[in-house]
Specification:
The complex is a heterodimer. By secondary structure, chain A is an all-alpha fold. Chain B is globular and about 60 Å long. Chain B has two domains: 67 residues, no CATH class; 158 residues, no CATH class. By secondary structure, chain B is an all-alpha fold. At the A-B interface, α1, α2, α3, α4 and α5 of A face α2, α3, α4, α5 and α6 of B. Chain A: It is a multi-pass membrane protein. Chain A: InterPro entries: LrgA/CidA.
């Protein structure tokens, strides 16, 4: 049952994250705290236990499916957006265009052609 | 209006789970049939299919969502699981840590600020702004952020979808204009701006682009998750 073992790891780290947030009052999500703790633990261990990989890989592969129920919800709140959809769409489209150009330009300047393969 | 044969089925969450699995698998099949179009990701096909099925069955979204909670509860451990690829990429981060640590805070901040400023100028409400602030962050992390900011998760999902889908053509056009052919840069930009959808695309380009995309995606997620809720609190206290 290596995958089940790994799943218990993942859930435990998520629960630890929940406790950390409860007591620290930090405005982070427990998943993020769990992720950072897991990464730190693996760095200390120096390797990825096979049981953890057996649970983590299929879960990451299924991420798209796990967010689908939420994505579908957007089709059912379109009415509530009346009058605001233009602001959202415009902000998202132009905003993403600007940030894509900024990212590419910044990285090009910082990494430079010297290292390009 | 629920058909009479349907009402016993909706009592069990397994019906919603089955609908989700079926739409997801069918969406993937259609995606491959259409020769993997970059402007129509599999997740969008699947979501449209699922919305159509719900509409045809007359199944209210709330009923569906309650059942689907049995699947979405896994988002928690799935987010934690992202710590594994993050660890595996630590050596790559070390290699390029200087340019990446300089670029990431600026680019990730601007990714949120550009869209927020534009939407704010056009008169979007505070709830709406809170819903799209995490638009470039991978879904499991973005949901946590949005709940903290008091935004609508359904709207966030729409914003994620739009952002992810348009990032793909925008990156390829902008890279051509800026004469960039370094796969590491293109991959990082795809992951930073287009979260999981951009990362999937980067893996289609090359494994290197994919690795840098997941790096960009995880770093943007962590950076935004750590700073956006704090920044948001400061702004609301100040105003």
């Amino acid at each position: 049952m290596p995958a089940l073992n790994g799943l218990l790891w993942l859930i435990s780290y998520w629960l630890i994250g929940e406790v950390v947030i409860h007591f620290s009052g930090l405005p982070f999500s427990s998943g993020v705290v769990g992720m950072l703790l897991l990464c730190a633990t693996l760095a200390v261990l120096g390797r990825v236990p096979s049981s953890l990989a057996a649970a983590a890989q299929p879960l990451i592969a299924l991420l798209a499916m796990l967010i689908m129920p939420g994505v579908v919800g957007v089709f059912f709140i379109l009415d509530e957006l009346a009058g605001q959809w233009f602001a959202i769409l415009f902000g998202l489209l132009l905003g993403t265009l600007l940030s894509v150009i900024t990212t590419l330009w910044l990285l090009k300047r910082l990494i430079g052609h010297a290292h390009a393969r | 209006m629920l058909a009479s044969w349907l009402s016993p089925l909706t009592v069990t969450p397994l019906f919603a789970v089955a609908l989700t699995l079926a739409a997801y698998l069918l969406g993937n099949v259609l995606f491959r049939r259409l020769h993997n179009p970059s402007w129509l990701p599999a997740i969008l096909i699947a979501a449209l299919l699922l919305a159509a099925i719900l509409a045809v069955l007359g199944l209210p979204y709330d009923t569906y969502q309650q059942g689907a909670t049995w699947l979405t509860i896994l988002l928690g451990p799935a987010t934690v699981a992202l710590g594994m690829p993050l660890y595996q990429q630590l050596p790559r981060i070390g290699e390029l840590w200087k340019p990446l640590t300089l670029c990431l805070p600026i680019a990730a901040t601007l990714a949120a600020c550009y869209a927020l400023a534009l939407a704010w100028l056009l008169g979007a409400s505070p709830t709406l702004l809170a819903s799209i602030a995490a638009k470039s962050v991978t879904a499991p992390i973005a949901i946590g952020i949005t709940e903290q900011l008091g935004g609508s998760v359904a709207l966030l999902m729409g914003a994620l979808l739009v952002t992810g889908v348009i990032t793909i053509p925008l990156v390829s056009i902008a890279a051509r204009l800026l004469k960039i052919d370094d796969e590491r840069i293109i991959g990082f930009a795809l992951g930073l701006n287009g979260h999981a959808i951009g990362t999937v695309r980067a893996f289609e380009l090359s494994p290197t682009a994919g690795a840098f995309a997941s790096l960009g995606m995880s770093l943007t997620g962590i950076f935004t998750a750590l700073l956006l809720p704090l920044a948001w609190q400061l702004i609301s206290i100040a105003s």
